[in-house]
Amino acid sequence: MSIDSSDTLLESNLANLIHRGKVRDTHCIDEETLLMVSTDRVSAYDVVMPNAIPGKGAILNQMSIFWFGMTKDIVPNHLINFAMDMEDMDLPANVRRRSMIVKKAERIDIECVARGYITGSALQEYQESGKIAGVEMSVGMKEGDLFERPIFTPATKAETGHDENISLENMEDMIGGELTHMLKRMTLEIYQFAHRYALNKNIIIADTKMEFGFIDGRLSLIDELLTPDSSRFWDKNSYSPGNAQSNYDKQFVRDWLANQGWDKEPPAPKLPEDIVNKTSIRYREAFDKLTETDLR
Asked: What is the secondary structure of the chain as a DSSP string?
């Protein structure tokens, strides 16, 4: 796993690391509160790349904060404050700008994925079986086609290795029918709200994944929300079904890896400088277009 500048700073300023994910590091503040740090690490196919995307952590963090604010009346979330606003915290500005203070949650180990367009693993499953998440789909769909209505496709949440798409029935067996349908409803409601908003900014949110947990008994959004890491953002003005879409996410990374003959298992090949630079630029463009705020 690569180590970016924020990792090094945190190790010297905040020792109580309790979890290191593919992209985010979580530190304990007290019994009820966590400091969640978005690093510059980048993952693809659930594997962390050996080199990072400069500035990525701040963009992911501040975009999640933007969306948590936009959707808080739909679903509560774990955000307490943006660490940049907590001047009394003994952290360098480079760490605070990519950090949020959140409530501890009892995480539900399911990735909740909303899809408005057919692409990625959903397209692959459809081409192989005519189904997505175990549900029969219309015949003749092609890359980038819009679904008649957004669909919900859950996946297992893997700590290591690859996440695995599951059916709604599998999800019900894991967490129960009532919670499954509540998560489906919330995921699709947030996606539809964000999709409408983004279209006005000339961005299509093709799909996105969300995580939920319980905070004081309330179902709440946790982790990140509607970022270029957790979503596919396409350029609305050049959208063309049947073709590869102009994107504002880490598709540059995925496309380069697909041409390397890599087996999608660690270790991943080092990303060339031009791929790193293009990805950094596109992440910033997504942030600017969607939030219309200054990156702090």
From this structure: ----HHHHHHHHH---EEEE-SSEEEEE-SSSEEEEEE-S--EETTEE-SS--TTHHHHHHHHHHHHHHHHTTTS-BSEEEEGGG-TTS---HHHHTTEEEEE--EE-SEEEEEEEE--HHHHHHHHHHSEETTEE--TT--TTPEEEEEEE--EE--SSS---B--HHHHHHHH-HHHHHHHHHHHHHHHHHHHHHHHTTTEEEEEEEEEEEEETTEEEEES--S-TTTEEEEEGGG--TTSPPPBSSTHHHHHHHHTTT--SSSSPPPPPHHHHHHHHHHHHHHHHHHH-S---
Are 174 and 167 within 8 A, CB to CB? no
Q: What is the CA radius of gyration of the chain?
A: 19
Quote the pLDDT of residue 16: 87
Angle subtended by helix axes 251-258 and 273-291, to nearest 10? 150
Residue ranges of the chain with per-residue pLDDT less than 70: 1-15, 158-162
pLDDT in tens, 121-147: 999 999 999 999 889 999 999 999 999
Cα pseudo-dihedral 87, 93, 96, 98, rounded to 10: 150
Q: Yes or no: say if 74 and 189 are a contact pair by the CB < 8 Å rule.
A: yes
d(CA 192, CA 211): 16
**Which residue, 296, 283, 290, 289, is CA-closest to 53?**
283
Tally of CB atoms within 10 A around 89: 18
Determine the straight-line distance between the first and last CA of the chain, rounded to whole angstroms.
27
Which residue, among 45, 233, 184, has the nearest Cα to 124 in the 3D structure? 45
For tokens 């997504």, the residue is 286
Gap between the Cα atoms of 173 and 6, Å rounded: 40
Q: What digits encode the pLDDT tens for the residues 155-187?
A: 997 665 567 889 999 999 999 999 999 999 999
